[in-house]
Amino acid sequence: EPEVTQTPSHQVTQMGQEVILRCVPISNHLYFYWYRQILGQKVEFLVSFYNNEISEKSEIFDDQFSVERPDGSNFTLKIRSTKLEDSAMYFCASWEAQGGPGNTIYFGEGSWLTVV
Amino acid sequence: AQKITQTQPGMFVQEKEAVTLDCTYDTSDPSYGLFWYKQPSSGEMIFLIYQGSYDQQNATEGRYSLNFQKARKSANLVISASQLGDSAMYFCAMREGNNQGGKLIFGQGTELSVKP
């Protein structure tokens, strides 16, 4: 079964540093997402990306965050000037955006970010 | 207002018994999709089952079934013949049809513990 892959699986960073989380979505999918899950809390939507631009973003996704698709396969989330409260699991997801089984949004295994 | 509500923070079930995890949703969009994901302690989000708002029959996937009651706006997950490996966090999520970007809105989750 095709899968979404994320790197790194875990990253520890100093407060104030920049972090880039990487994702390889499923190849024929059209929409890509980043979600965040603070420990013990629910999964929160950050941003969706379609046709090489942001489709929608939440209020969490402020100027500290950016996304890009630098090539045909990778999808990245950049977090500038990290804060302690950015510590969370970050999930990448992708969606084929067609009917039937394509309705499923598939998630990667997540990237744990710890800001110290 | 919460769009997805899971009222059971934690549930216990005896191995081999069936268990129902509750989920209610709120939307005015006639077209929507409902999802259940499993999150084991390792953190990944595993897709379990999908129900479309226009689907005439309740979705089933192996031991998982979705008790979809549209008028009551509920989409409860039923796990039959529980196994120890079913112990995990379970999230209900919704995608509204009028959201072209297809983002998922998650509930707070239910932690299921299966007792031997």
Short description:
Chain A has strands at 5-7, 10-13, 19-24, 31-37, 44-50, 53-57, 65-68, 75-79, 88-95, 105-107, 111-115.
Could you describe the 3D structure shown?
With 116 residues, chain A is mostly beta strands. Chain A has strands spanning 5-7, 10-13, 19-24, 31-37, 44-50, 53-57, 65-68, 75-79, 88-95, 105-107, 111-115. In chain A, the strands form two sheets. In chain A, strands 2, 4, 5, 6, 9, 10 and 11 form a seven-stranded mixed β-sheet that branches. In chain A, a hairpin with a 6-residue loop joins β7 (65-68) and β8. Chain B is mainly β. Chain B is 0% helix and 50% strand. Chain B contains no helices and twelve strands. In chain B, the strands form three sheets. In chain B, strands 2, 5, 6, 10, 11 and 12 form a six-stranded mixed β-sheet that branches. The N and C termini of chain B lie far apart (38 Å). The A-B interface holds A 31, 33, 35, 41-45, 48, 50, 55-56, 89, 91, 93, 95, 97, 103-110, 112 and B 33, 35, 37, 42-47, 50, 52, 91, 93, 95, 99-109.
Task: Fill in the keyword field for this structure.
heterodimer; A: 116 residues; mainly beta; seven-stranded mixed sheet; four-stranded antiparallel sheet; 49% strand; globular; B: 116 residues; six-stranded mixed sheet; 12 strands; 50% strand
Query: What's the total helix number of chain A?
Result: 0
What is the CA-CA span between the terminal residues of chain B?
A: 38 Å
Strand content of chain A: over 45%
Strand content of chain B: over 45%
